[in-house]
Design goal:
Blueprint: H1 4-22, E1 45-51, E2 55-62, H2 67-79, H3 81-88, E3 92-100, E4 103-113, H4 123-152
Antiparallel strand pairs: 1-2, 2-4, 3-4
Helix pairs in contact: 2-4, 3-4
């Protein structure tokens, strides 16, 4: 069992290493990007990177205060499902994934099971999975984000 300080150090080491690795990759629009805090440019849409003891995942979370707006955004994403999955890979779709800060979250996510963040031998594979999915996600997202921006306004 790791101490709180050891977990923090491991977390910092992993994410700083990932940030350095991703520095060489530009967004598909040609601009530099903060891959760890991927900018959705759409209010209440978040791209989250999650690493845990059993898997690693990249999540596309839709969580506006208004459930009607969430439903509209979700519907649009389901219309783009075939295109999205052909570019990024098969995803897990959950219209009502969970509640966060009193808001229902709709989540689309890609995960790789069998990876343990606390096993240093898994870090290379975790980073590879996140890198691959983020770059593919960025290519898709840059193409279609204007649709989401117009719907969220």
């Amino acid at each position: 069992m790791l101490t709180k300080e050891a977990r923090k150090e491991l977390n910092t080491h992993f994410w700083e290493g990932f940030r350095k690795e991703m520095r060489n990759h530009k967004s598909s629009n040609g601009r530099g990007i903060n891959w760890i805090n991927y900018p959705s440019d759409v209010k209440d849409i978040y791209i989250r990177l999650i690493v845990a003891t059993k898997n690693a995942s990249i999540c596309f979370d839709i969580q506006p205060k208004d459930d009607d707006i969430r439903s509209i955004l979700w519907e649009q994403m389901t219309e783009l499902k075939v295109v999205m999955e052909s570019e990024i890979g098969e995803a897990i779709w959950s219209e009502e994934s969970h509640v966060f800060n009193g808001r229902t979250v709709s989540r689309i996510h890609w995960e790789m099971n069998g990876l343990n963040f606390y096993d240093l031998n898994n870090h290379k594979e975790i980073k590879g999975f996140l890198r691959d999915k983020l770059i593919k996600f960025d290519s898709f997202y840059q193409e279609y984000k204007e649709i989401l921006i117009s719907l969220a306004e």
